[in-house]
């Protein structure tokens, strides 16, 4: 897998103009002009840069999870360093908007270096982009324009500080707008929760719990064609509990059924549910139910 360690080498690969600054690139299209189209397809690659791009016109469909959306309005896409990128010619962007790319070293030693780690959307997949309303789009573009102005001017000792400040503002607004998107896409959230439960049920019913142990959230998210972070954030906003807690609740619910079968020991119940250590199963059960597995069995056993 190719690994691009500099911003220049990454932009060269994308067939985009070389940067004015060795660690920062700002490409902006206004009016009727278009940003240069990057390479039409690529095998998996990684790089050491952050990218924030506004795509305004798209040919073809992208899936948002398993739901198709047209990208007539702006879609803001975030990419973090060493996130694997891959695309093919079936999805074609004709970019009209902006693209801000900066090497991770550009923000080292600044406040934003810590802030940026808290923004989950850098871990989302490209098909989980932030869909902007027209007003939101105008606001984000105005901030990007401020960055471009400072980028194009003769840079001085204040330039980096101003650019960092504008980047911080852009990311804070993006975080706010993602919160709005989570709230507005109730149907999608419910669909993800339903799919999540179906994946757990299928995993259980096909005997994979005993064979492979308890699945990771990443495994389940991959089966659903969404990123782990996006799945977790969506379900947390919709239900108030994490994906791990959803999985644990499912296991506890199954445990209750098995515990009422008197021919199985507590350890056997734990192993059947994919727990490597029965003690962990017992602690989890008591934490969730307030009583131990053996106490539950005694309380609800059939007379």
Description:
This is Transcriptional regulator, AraC family. It comes from Aquimarina amphilecti. GO terms for molecular function: DNA-binding transcription factor activity; sequence-specific DNA binding. Keywords: DNA-binding, Transcription, Transcription regulation. The protein is α+β, with helices and mostly antiparallel strands and about 300 residues long. It has 2 domains: about 1-185, Jelly Rolls, CATH 2.60.120; about 190-300, Arc Repressor Mutant, subunit A (Orthogonal Bundle). Helices cover about 50% and strands about 15% of the residues. It has helices spanning about 5-15, 110-115, 135-150, 160-185, 185-205, 210, 215-225, 230-240, 245-260, 265-270, 280-290, 295-300; strands spanning about 1-5, 25-30, 40-45, 50-55, 55-60, 60-65, 65-70, 75-80, 85, 90-95, 100-105, 130. A 5-stranded antiparallel β-sheet has the order 2-11-4-8-12. It has a 3-stranded mixed β-sheet with strand order 1-3-9. A two-stranded antiparallel ribbon has the order 5-10. A hairpin with a 2-residue loop joins strand 6 and strand 7. Helix 5 (about 185-205) packs across helix 8. The chain is elongated and about 80 Å long. Mean pLDDT is about 80; it is low at about 60-70.
């Amino acid at each position: 897998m190719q690994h691009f360690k500099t911003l220049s080498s990454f932009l060269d690969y994308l067939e985009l103009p070389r940067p004015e600054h060795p660690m920062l690139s700002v490409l902006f299209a206004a009016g009727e002009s278009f940003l240069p189209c990057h390479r039409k397809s690529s095998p998996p690659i990684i790089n050491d840069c952050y990218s924030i791009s506004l795509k305004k016109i798209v040919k073809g469909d992208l899936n948002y999870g398993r739901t198709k959306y047209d990208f007539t309005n702006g879609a803001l896409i975030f990419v973090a360093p060493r996130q694997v990128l891959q695309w093919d010619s079936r999805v074609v962007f004709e970019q009209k908007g902006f693209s801000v790319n900066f090497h991770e070293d550009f923000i080292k030693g600044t406040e934003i270096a810590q802030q940026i780690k808290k923004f989950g959307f850098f871990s989302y997949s490209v098909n989980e982009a932030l869909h902007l309303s027209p007003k939101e789009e105008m606001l984000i573009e105005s901030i990007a324009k401020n960055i471009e102005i400072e980028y194009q001017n003769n840079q001085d000792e204040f330039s980096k500080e101003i650019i960092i400040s504008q980047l911080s503002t852009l990311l804070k607004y993006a975080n706010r707008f993602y919160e709005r998107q989570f709230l507005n896409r109730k149907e999608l959230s419910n669909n993800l929760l339903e799919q999540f439960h179906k994946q757990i049920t299928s995993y259980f019913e096909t005997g994979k719990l005993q064979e492979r142990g308890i699945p990771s959230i990443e495994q389940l998210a991959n089966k659903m064609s969404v990123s782990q972070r996006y799945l977790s954030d969506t379900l947390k906003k919709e239900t108030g509990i994490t994906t791990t807690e959803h999985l644990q609740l499912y296991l506890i619910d199954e445990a209750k059924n098995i515990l009422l079968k008197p021919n199985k020991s507590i350890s056997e119940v734990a192993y059947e549910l994919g727990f490597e250590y029965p003690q962990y199963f017992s602690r989890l059960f008591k934490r969730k139910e307030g009583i131990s597995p053996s106490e539950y069995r005694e309380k609800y056993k059939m007379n």
